[in-house]
Amino acid sequence: MLDTNYLRPNRTIESILLSNKKNKKLVFIYNYEGIHFRLFLSADQMIDFFIKEIEPNFCFENDNDLDCVLKKLKIA
After folding, report:
1. Could you give the CA distance from residue 66 to residue 48 in angstroms, rounded to a whole number?
2. pTM for the whole thing?
3. Which long-range contacts link 66-73 to residues 24+ away (Cβ below 8 Å)?
4. For 42, phi and psi rounded to 5 degrees?
5. DSSP letters of 6-46?
6. What is the pLDDT of residues 1-39, one digit of tens each?
7. With contact defined as beta carbons under 8 Å apart, do 32 and 11 qualify?
8. For residue 74, what pLDDT is reported?
9. How far apart, in whole angstroms, are the C-alpha atoms of residue 64 and residue 6?
10. Which of 39, 30, 34 is nearest to 72 (CA)?
């Protein structure tokens, strides 16, 4: 994890740098009260969510499902 920004005590945005041997990818996770997670594959997706209320492709009800997707996410 690179950084955690607290919007409120129970709402955060985490910046995570994923990497493999050849590539790196910066992703963002919006954590709402520890029970709702949204994964953004770009800053533009995150801005669209907060400004235009466009839901991302990845929404989770628990952090275990989120972790499974992060482990399998292709980094290109």
Report:
1. 20
2. 0.87
3. 66/29, 66/37, 66/39, 69/39, 70/16, 70/18, 70/27, 70/39, 73/18, 73/25, 73/27
4. -155, 160
5. EEETTEEEEEEEEE-SS-EEEEEEEEETTTEEEEESSHHHH
6. 678 889 988 999 999 999 988 999 999 999 999 899 999
7. yes
8. 86
9. 21
10. 39
pLDDT at 53: 94
The predicted pLDDT at position 32 comes to 94
Q: Which two tokens stand for residue 57?
A: 């492709």
pLDDT tens track for 42-53 = 999 999 999 999
Contact 12, 64 (CB under 8 A): no
Strand partners, 25: 18
Q: First-to-last CA distance in the chain?
A: 19
